[in-house]
Input
Amino acid sequence: MGLGFLVWSGGGGFGVRSRRRLVGCSVVAPAEERSVRLALGKLKVEVLPEPLKFSSSWRTMVETLESMGLTGTRLSKLLRKRPALLELDPMETVIPFVRTVTTVLDYDTKGASILLCKRPSLMDYPEIAVAEVLSILLSLGIEERPLRFLLLRFPGIAEINPSQVRSSLRYLVKDAGFKINELWPLIRDSPWVMCYDVETECTPVIEFLEEIGVQNVKLIIQTEPRVWKRGTNLPNHCSVNFASRAHHGFLDFWMLKGAFDCLCDCFPRCLDVLYQSSSNQCTNFCCRLD
Output
């Protein structure tokens, strides 16, 4: 509940009585709050955040959301995820994001509204950064239509730092052996490969694979790209797991020259499975090799 108080004018024979309620850092008239609730009610918003917070630009925000087709359940969902939505200036948040995705990827307003509902934080990300990430992906030869679908599935792609995207893609091509036209299938299925740090996650894994004799590093990454998140922990952890499961024949198998390369070719997920600390997982994997 807000804090209510009465203010009376002093002297002069005229008295004006006004009632105000404090909302956040601003003083808002209850009549204006009723107007906000009425406007949202007309848009069939089911549940309003409490306390209801809004700024002087709330009407513009409501009109913007309505023009995007955001009403009813979808608008309710957006308000649940972003209770302070009506405190924001649409000219600095919603409109720049919509302008970016409609310009770069030819989205319609409905598509842009779905993106915002799935990930409201997109409206806070710099417009130029979103455009740059999407332009980098388009430069790989990815067509707009599949990229639109990918963004709907993984909207967080638009929030990756552009320099991080460039660094990851450059590493995939120069060090992991990918060709430009091979990047799209990997990004489509595992877009998080663009988030890994080259120095602390990618490079240690590649060096470890090459050290143990794996020739087809690209196959490992294509099949199990999450192996990169193991980073510098992968060599030690895998060695411990191999040694602790020597009774399954893995230690002897490890010692055979070139044998691990064959294992990775046949079972590219082996590194991720053997990394796990669960004995059951590794035991089951060993049984499948018998």
Q: What stands out?
A: The radius of gyration is 28 Å. Strands lie at 4-7, 18-23, 26-28. The longest strand covers residues 18-23.
